[in-house]
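Pipeline run #58 for the internal structure catalog. This entry was flagged by the ingest filter as a single-chain record with no existing model, so it goes straight to prediction. Upstream metadata was stripped on purpose; only the residue string is passed forward. Reviewer on rotation: M.T. Logging verbosity set to normal.
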Amino acid sequence: MTGCIVAIDGPAGVGKSTVAQAVAECTGFTYIDTGAMYRAVAYRAMKAGLSPGTDDEAIGQLAGELDFEFKTVGGQRRLLVDGEDVSEVIRTPEVGRRSSPVSAIPAVREHLVAAQRRMTERVPVVMEGRDIGTVVFPEATLKVFLTASAEERARRRYQQMLERGQEACYEEILAGQLERDQRDRSRAIAPLRRAADAVEIDSDNLTAEQVVAEVMRLLETAGVRGDE
């Protein structure tokens, strides 16, 4: 079903990636993590010694020169930028802190939105981010706005870090969530918001499996079947 687009938007830490990957597996669609793309720009800008707010023009130019490719390697989805696998390095806290201000640079968004649209020209996709249903693909087949309280998102992140053997402070994680939410909702370019025709799913009391089941139900209601 070329041209079918499932847009999953929502705030940081709500579980968009987990849900989007699972829906992509269920349908056979291609999964595209737009947040990883912005993190990749932040990472490459950091390597080049560029800082958002000071070197915005240069960062915008850099974003337009990067080649993004999502590949499945050993059953895992990887992001390659100019052939470099950046899947792990873009998940560091420092890159995470830089990704939000980098994503607010108009030229960066322009280049990445164009790249994201090119990715959907030949295959159906499940794409997640913060402005997929409002800016990137306002004509998406299905729009989902996944949400959860900042407290619940911080609790999940805290638990995840503990399970990985990492040091974690719930209060610091929560403060970071609230700060990120404020930046994402108040930025001048493509702020985080629910599209008028998006279906909102509050995941506070739902497991990831239950959220995926609901998205699949919505797709079935819309007459969309996977692997077509």
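catalog note: The mean pLDDT is 91.
catalog note: Residues 33 and 128 are 6 Å apart (CA to CA).
status: ready for reviewer M.T.
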